[in-house]
């Protein structure tokens, strides 16, 4: 599982806005992965909570990406690690933008 460029680590910044953005990213990528795994609404919410709890135990973005990627592969979903990384970056950018707009 190699990648060409690391994604900046939001949680290490220590900034409240970045922590909030990282939390938003984690929830969004969990919901995206749940949709890919075709989970029902209740399972989707449980999965999102599990990813959020996982992030509390292992606070790096890399750990979250590995978890999501591993879960998708374990569910026989055809996905590249680079797609998970791209989605994580997109969701982080969206969460940062939402934070700037007060959402």
From TrEMBL:
The protein's matches in Gene3D superfamilies, at most eight in alphabetical order, are given as: Domain of unknown function DUF1476
A Pfam short name: ATPaseInh_sub_z
Q: What is this protein called?
A: DUF1476 family protein
What high-level taxonomic lineage is stated for the organism? Bacteria, Pseudomonadati, Pseudomonadota, Alphaproteobacteria, Caulobacterales
